[in-house]
Amino acid sequence: MSKLTTEKLKKLIKEVLTENKKDSMILAEGKDSKYKRILNILQGEVPDVKTVGLMSGQNPMVKKVSDLENANRKEDLEKSVKQKGLEYIRIGAEFGGHPEQSLIILNPTQFQLDKLCREFQQWGFVWGEKFPIRPGETFMAFSMM
């Protein structure tokens, strides 16, 4: 399990923003506010967000599938996340050379993400958990699971 540092995560987000300018993939309207919100969450600066998960339901086990199947898998993942009472933010991503429509899931448990990962036959997910640095100051630590 390798650690995903804040700097690596920022770099990945910037790469995704640069590579994916399509409205369907990333930050369509209000790019600045959505981008800032995402960064604030991922930096652990949003008090109500204690954990995050980044995952996709597309391209199971890093195998490219049809656009129609990926669209259905995206919709099914969003429905499953909503049914669990969780909020999410849509993001664009790339894994194994395949562009994917992914989610940042807010305040999941690691168990919930593991179950979703298995349900959607995913290679893994990014787990983020807020840790205290000192009183009143926290940071989000990330791991690839």
Outline the structure in words:
- The protein has about 140 residues and is of the alpha+beta class.
- About 35% of the residues lie in helices and about 30% in strands.
- It has helices spanning about 5-20, 30-40, 65-85, 110-120, and strands at about 5, 50-55, 85-95, 100-105, 125-135, 135-145.
- The chain has a six-stranded antiparallel sheet, sandwiched between helices.
- A hairpin with a 2-residue loop joins strand 3 and strand 4.
- The longest helix is centred in the middle third of the chain and has 17 residues, at about 65-85.
- It is globular and about 50 Å long.
Please supply descriptive tags for the structure shown above.
alpha+beta, about 140 residues, six-stranded antiparallel beta sheet, 6 strands
Mean pLDDT, nearest integer? 85
The span between the termini is 7 Å
**Quaternary class:** single chain
Counted by DSSP, the helix tally is: 4
User: How does the overall form come out from the CA principal axes?
Assistant: globular
Q: What's the count of strands? A: 6
Overall structural class, as computed from helix and strand content, comes to alpha+beta
* Contiguous uncertain segments of 5+ residues: 20-29
Strands side by side in the biggest sheet: 1-6-5-2-4-3
Gyration radius (Cα, Å) is 15 Å
Which range does the strand content fall in?
A: 25-35%
Order of helices and strands: EHHEHEEHEE
